[in-house]
Each structure stands twice: as C-alpha cells, then as structure tokens.
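Before surveying the methods themselves, it helps to consider a single example record, giving the amino acid sequence and backbone structure tokens:
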Amino acid sequence: MRNLVLISFEIVLSPLASSMFTPGIGEIAKDLGTSSETIVGATTGFVVFLGIGPLILAPLSETFGRRKLYLVCFSIFALLQIPTALSPNAETLIAVRTVSGFFGSMFFFIVLSFSNFHLIYQLDYRLRIPRRGYSKWRRNNKRHVPPQPTSASPPPNRPSPLVIPLP
C-alpha cells in the first residue's frame, strides 16, 4: 500500500511540475532579466520531452527492469529541481527544465504498465481463473460437450466433408 501511495504521488508530481510553473512566468522573467516568451520555452521544453521520454525510456525499462529505471529517473527528476530553482539565467532554466521533463516522463509509462497488470488481474478475477495453475484449472473446469453421434454416415441433408465432387 505504501508503494501505491508513493507511486500515485510521483505520478501527480510530473504534470504538477509542468503546470505550477506557469503562473510565475512573469516574475521569473523579471528576475532573470528576460521576456516572458523566453521563459515559456522552459515549459515547452518540459512538455515536449515529457512526450519524447517514453520513446527512449520504455525500451530501456524492458532491458534493465522497470524498478531500477524508475528509481534512477525519479532521483534525477527530484535532483534536477534544485538547479531549476537556482538557475542564474534563462538558458540554464530552459535546459534544466527540458532534461527534467525527459526524466519526469518515466512516471507515465510506468502507470500504463501498472494499469495493464491491474486490468489483467481484474479479468482473471471476473473469469475466476487463478493466475497460477491455469492448465490444472482448465482440465478440471471443461464445459459440458454434448455427445457426438457414433454413426459413420453424415446427416442426410449434408454432403460428406471428405468427398470432393469432381467436375
């Protein structure tokens, strides 16, 4: 349960990091001595790499495992918030926020993989199929099959499937 709460918090954190930045764009631009349009580039970079990240990170999660990659990406995402807050100029802010969006994208495809497992579990539960021992369950829970006719001749109004008419 603790992991579920932690993962849920981290899933909310990435989109929140994207949108909570927006109301302060004017003040950030004034503090860094640049225009607000330049600071919007930081949010743009974050959101663009939020979409590009899974294209690179998803195959890596299949290779190295989701848990390892998840922990590494979350750590890097959390640590990148420090240079974001201490950025001396707009260029540094844009670069750090863009990289932060890349590592923040890990949460989205982790959610998809967890939701897929959840749906599979629900399907198994509804069908009352145990997750382990499926073949034993299948042997013991066969549907009733009506007995087949024992005569070798086909029904009178159907042609035999083994006879091929010649032209």
Summary: The first helix runs from residue 2 to 19. Residues 24 and 36 are 10 Å apart (CA to CA). Residues 2-107 form one domain.
